[in-house]
Amino acid sequence: MTPSGQVIVTDADVLADAAADVVAREAALAIATRGWCTIALSGGSTPRALYQRLSHRRDIEWSRIHLLWGDERCVPPTDPASNYGMARQALIDHIKMPAAQVHRIRGEDPPQAEAERYDSVVRSAVRDGAIDMVLLGLGTDGHTASLFPGDAATRAEDRWVVAAEFADARGWRISLTAPVLIASRTVLFLVAGADKAQVLADVLEGPDAPDALPAQRIVRGAVDVHWLVDREAASRLTQVPTAGR
Ligand code: 6PG
User: Fold this and answer.
1) Does an H or E element contain 190, and which?
2) For a substitution probing ligand 1, which of 15, 41, 42, 161 has the most ligand atoms within 8 Å of its CB?
3) How confident is the model at residue 4 (pLDDT cuts 50, 70, 90)?
4) pLDDT one-digit tens code per residue, 70-127
5) 144 ligand 1 Cβ < 6 A
6) Atom of ligand 1 nearest to the CA of 190
7) How far apart are CA 121 and CA 200, in angstroms?
8) Closest Cα to atom 12, ligand 1: which residue?
9) Do the beta carbons of residue 192 and residue 244 sit within 8 Å?
10) Which end of the chain is flanked by fewer CB atoms within 10 Å, N or C?
């Protein structure tokens, strides 16, 4: 175990399968322990293959799972940029899950009001104070979910969900905040590609820089962190064996 969690390095073409194994295992454990499981899905492009693998698994009790989102772009669910839209196409449309257990962030609604609404949604969905499993990606600038370096939302401590506006193409984003991500029972980072190699090394093996590297703040605060990374993303790690699946 590295100080920042368990790191599994795999070939790119089996990364999604390895991640699906972890998700299925952790979901089964949560359901066996508490009767249900809450999973906060990540956005971006990397998890699409994972969601497709999950849609084919026969060992996941979707009827006992509540889906949340770690963050969302403030766009309609039909927009190509929508994190919910991607998960719906890759996973939700292919599994039997009660619609009432799919708790999407309503990207089409006014961001500040939606952040307040979603804060209540998350608190009622998790019931006992912690999300069971949070899936996260890693941006080349060290962001995760929609917690970006140096942004006030990244430092939010007094709420579980925050809305933030960015002057560039990011526009408005809604994100779970660091405290609720850190409080989750299991965090699963999925990272692929050579362009993530330096930031992954900085997050996992570099000096403490939580404001500059929001992902590092989550990693160093959470109790159980799993990294599923491909060999290209792991290429600058020095403390992690690169043996993988
Ligand atoms: C988003 C994600 C974001 C993502 C990283 C990595 O809404 O974009 O929540 O945090 O996980 O930017 O994205 P890729 O998987 O596309 O590299």
Assistant:
1) strand 186-191
2) 42
3) low
4) 999 999 999 999 999 999 999 999 999 999 999 999 999 999 999 999 999 999 999 7
5) yes
6) 15
7) 32
8) 139
9) no
10) N
SS3 10: strand
Distance from Cα 151 to the centre of ligand 1, integer Å: 16
Helix, strand, coil percent values for the chain (each to nearest 5): 40, 20, 40
Instruction: Indicate yes or no: pTM above 0.85.
Output: yes
71 CA distance to ligand 1 centroid (A)? 9
pLDDT in tens, 158-177: 999 999 999 999 999 999 99
Is there an atom of ligand 1 within 6 Å of 50 CB? no
User: Could you tell me the pLDDT band of residue 13, with boundaries at 50, 70 and 90?
Assistant: confident
Which residue type does 6 have? Q
Per DSSP bridges, beta strands 172-176 and 71-73 are antiparallel
Mean pLDDT of the chain: 94
Cβ(210) – ligand 1 distance below 6 Å: no
DSSP 117-140: HHHHHHHHHHSSSS-SEEEE---T
Instruction: Verify whether ligand 1 is closer than 6 Å to residue 145 (CB atom).
Output: yes
Residue keyed to tokens 């952040």 = 115
For the chain, what percent of residues have pLDDT higher than 90?
91
- The structure tokens listed for 110 are 């006014």
d(CA 26, CA 157): 27
